[in-house]
Amino acid sequence: MRQLLVALSLSVVAIVGSAPEVTAQSTPPTGSMQEKPADAMAAAMEAYRGQRYDEARRLALPLAESGEIAAQLMLGSIYNNGEGVTPDRNEAARWFGMAAEQGDASAQYALGLLMEYGDVAGATPAAARRLFQQAADQGHAAAQTELGMMYTTGHGGPRDIDTAAALFERAAKTGHADAQYYLGTLFATGRGRPQDLGEAAAYFRLAADQGQPEASYQLGLMLQDGVGTTKNAIEAARRFSGAAESGLPEAQTALAFAYLAGDGVERNATLAAKWFTEAAMRGEPLAQARLARLYFLGQGVARDVAAALLWLTLAEKGGYEDEALRSALEPEITPEIRASVDRQIARWDQGATGATSGD
Length: 359
Known about the structure:
This protein is mostly helical. It folds into 3 domains: 1-123, no CATH class; 175-267, Serine Threonine Protein Phosphatase 5, Tetratricopeptide repeat (Alpha Horseshoe); 269-359, no CATH class. Helices cover 68% and strands 0% of the residues. The chain is built from 19 helices and no strands. The protein has helices at 2-16, 37-49, 53-65, 69-81, 89-101, 105-117, 125-137, 141-153, 161-173, 177-189, 197-208, 213-225, 233-245, 249-261, 269-281, 285-297, 305-317, 323-329, 335-349. The longest helix has 15 residues, at 2-16.
């Protein structure tokens, strides 16, 4: 749910950040000491930005009840993210729903995310699609992108790649990185748009320059092979590095191979082992198999037969086989090593962290 939490928080900050210009949708409570809605909303936003969530909620509540969209968005975010309260996505959906009913595109998008990912009462993919459509029709780029993905997969309604491509294009023109990435994939595969590897690389570059990890990885592959763009091993490694730092296991594996071969970077077996380990811990079978080889050879790491067996076994469980390494390992596997590795595999299967060569 991390993506959802970030998206909702950013949505609130973007809308409520201009609170002084926002007015209540209905008449606020009267009284000689009553703050004006804009002033109260500004005070609520100041408290929210200062992480004084109880104060922000207290200030925003009467405004939200009177119809102030910015306050409703703030309360939706507070309850969704558990900011000073116990997380309650149904309560978040209630506040986002109030703002969405008033036609606010950010609220429609936020509620759509909850309907698609948030496990709230009445949530269905079809409801999420309707909300994304309402927001997309108002030019909300993130909603256009989510709706495009639903059209791509057929989730919550019909599958229509041409419509998805059109939605991605609309969002990509605003600079939305995910839309640029998805549009690039359509050009790369010739789905929804004629295949054009040059266009694919161009869109991947736009998204990668904004830090979109999958786009950085795909651009790195194209740069590495000179597909759709000029071959450039140094830039390819740099793109892999950016995506690897963000935690993308495929990019971590690609960067490890670059260090192992000295492709675009100075050859460094220790760094290769580091990045294979990062990807292996995230369950990447190819990285697990290659890390097993490094442990068997003592390349970039201290030689460790037990660690080699552990990572090779995990790679095999993930569908990647290395018969040559398995044959080379077998003569060195003692009953003690096998028992130790079996225990570690059992912990791994139970979701335990920190699988290492020792018990």
